[in-house]
């Protein structure tokens, strides 16, 4: 499959894609949840902060501290479970991003949301896509975030960088996406996988579907 063109990764283009999105669009991956677990999911939301740097979008990601009991050391999107005072999932994502990395609500233009994703840990996660005109001063909470870093959206929206891995899961295996990223002249490789990579894969499919839909609309006029 082709990469998403750079022209479709600007704030203006993403606004159009979300405003004209097909309500019947179905994501490629909806869950890594074990169907044998029948307990109702816990509601959660994550923010996908897209930062404009010199006209190019970059996704802001975090690494979780190694001392955490769950998902320690993993790369994640800022977010967490829905609290009783949250009016909606957008509010949850913005509140959690503020608590985790000090991102202020006013710095984020919310573009839209993707369908929820069921995780193996029992959460129903709603990804909220937001645009930042630039990189604001952030204050990560060391109890929840070890590091904040940026990955070019063009890298993440290129399926040549989407790898399928077989991971152990109990007595069996499951297939997951991974998107290893290493910045030029940097020795550190960030291994983006699991739920975060699945959400990004769905975002790629959403943009691909929206672009195809827009192209069909243009060809019919």
Helix percentage:
10-25%
Gross morphology is globular
H and E order: HEEEEHEEEEHEEEH
Q: What is the gyration radius calculated from CA atoms?
A: 17 Å
Q: How many strand elements?
A: 11
CATH homologous superfamily designation: Nucleoside Triphosphate Pyrophosphohydrolase
* CATH-defined topology: Nucleoside Triphosphate Pyrophosphohydrolase
Mean pLDDT: 87
Taking pLDDT < 50 over at least 5 consecutive residues as the criterion, the unreliable ranges are 216-221
Distance between the termini: 26 Å
- CATH top level? Alpha Beta
* Count of DSSP H/I helices: 4
> What fraction strand?
25-35%
Derived from helix and strand composition plus strand pairing, the structural class reads alpha+beta
The largest β sheet comes out as: 8 strands, mixed
Which architecture does the CATH hierarchy give at level 2? Alpha-Beta Complex
Total of domains: 1
Question: What does this 3D model show about the protein?
Answer:
- By secondary structure, this protein is an alpha+beta fold.
- The chain has a single domain, classed as Nucleoside Triphosphate Pyrophosphohydrolase (Alpha-Beta Complex), CATH 3.90.79.
- Helices cover 24% and strands 31% of the residues.
- The protein has helices at 11-19, 89-101, 153-156, 194-219; strands spanning 42-53, 56-63, 75-76, 79-81, 109-113, 117-118, 123-132, 147-152, 163-169, 172-181, 190-193.
- The strands form two sheets. Strands 1, 2, 3, 4, 5, 6, 7 and 8 form an eight-stranded mixed β-sheet that branches. Strands 9-10-11 form a three-stranded antiparallel β-sheet.
- Strand 10 and strand 11 form a beta hairpin.
- The radius of gyration is 17 Å and the shape is globular.
């Amino acid at each position: 499959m082709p990469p998403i063109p750079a022209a479709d990764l600007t704030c203006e283009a993403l606004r159009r894609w979300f405003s004209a999105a097909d309500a019947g669009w179905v994501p490629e991956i909806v869950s890594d949840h074990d169907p044998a677990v029948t307990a109702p999911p816990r509601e959660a939301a994550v923010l996908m902060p897209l930062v404009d740097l010199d006209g190019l979008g970059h996704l802001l990601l975090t690494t979780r501290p190694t001392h955490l009991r769950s998902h320690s050391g993993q790369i994640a999107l800022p977010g967490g479970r829905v609290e009783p005072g949250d009016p909606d999932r957008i509010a949850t994502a913005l509140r959690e991003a503020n608590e985790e990395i000090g991102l202020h609500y006013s710095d984020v233009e919310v573009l839209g949301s993707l369908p929820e994703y069921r995780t193996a840990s029992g959460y129903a996660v709603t990804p909220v896509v937001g645009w930042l005109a630039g990189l604001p001063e952030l204050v990560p909470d060391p109890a929840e975030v070890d590091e904040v870093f940026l990955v070019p959206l063009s890298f993440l929206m290129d399926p040549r960088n989407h790898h399928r891995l077989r991971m152990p899961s109990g007595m069996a295996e499951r297939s997951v996406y991974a998107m290893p990223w290493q910045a030029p002249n940097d020795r550190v490789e960030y291994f983006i996988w699991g739920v975060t990579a699945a959400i990004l894969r769905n975002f790629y499919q959403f943009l691909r579907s929206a672009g195809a839909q827009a192209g069909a609309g243009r060809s019919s006029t």
